[in-house]
Structure to design on (197 residues):
């Protein structure tokens, strides 16, 4: 999710496995390649995000010193991880609230402040999904809940959230705030769009 506009780039349903994390990080890597500005990724305590992103798009930093050159994140890419584990403590024994999981490029200038590192908007989205979409809330008929069926529900939610509904905090439709479309779609517009195959 893009924090300023609340535009959701990718919604994927599935088991909490490597494949699911990889699809999310490929989306982030593609966004970074197309972006002209620096990109800051804030995640919860899941370390697989940063590791996969590092595997997909790292750079070799050649300093001229002897030994193997250091691998770093590309210039302009910043990853911050919110700590949930009690094991990650600093030298004084205090729990570090924010962690930099991978080495950053030395020329990356835009660094976020600790107070800005949070995933509250994503956590709020997760609670909205549980509240609004009964397929993700009810435990009855769990045998009938396939990944395809749940993904279909998420796809419809993605369209409505990004292109139809005005966001509560920004007071704008997320696609309009990001500049993808000039004005939000109505339900009539949405139902009249032809599916391009």
């Amino acid at each position: 999710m893009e924090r300023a506009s609340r535009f959701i780039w990718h919604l994927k349903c599935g088991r909490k496995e490597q494949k699911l994390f990889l699809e999310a990080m490929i989306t982030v890597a593609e966004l970074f390649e197309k972006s002209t500005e620096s990109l800051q990724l804030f995640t919860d305590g899941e370390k697989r995000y940063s590791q996969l992103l590092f595997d997909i798009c790292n750079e070799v930093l050649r300093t001229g010193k002897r030994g193997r050159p250091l691998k770093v994140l590309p210039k302009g890419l910043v990853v911050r991880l919110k700590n949930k584990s009690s094991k990650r403590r600093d030298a004084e024994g205090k729990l570090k609230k924010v962690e930099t999981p991978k080495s950053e490029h030395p020329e990356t200038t835009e660094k976020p402040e600790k107070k800005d590192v949070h995933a509250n908007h994503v956590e709020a989205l997760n609670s909205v999904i549980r509240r609004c979409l009964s397929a993700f809330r009810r435990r009855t008929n769990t045998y009938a809940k396939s990944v395809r069926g749940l993904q279909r529900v998420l796809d419809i939610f993605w369209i409505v959230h990004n292109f139809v509904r005005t966001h509560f905090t920004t007071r704008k439709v997320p696609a309009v705030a990001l500049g993808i479309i000039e004005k939000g779609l109505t339900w009539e517009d949405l139902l009249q769009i032809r599916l391009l195959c």
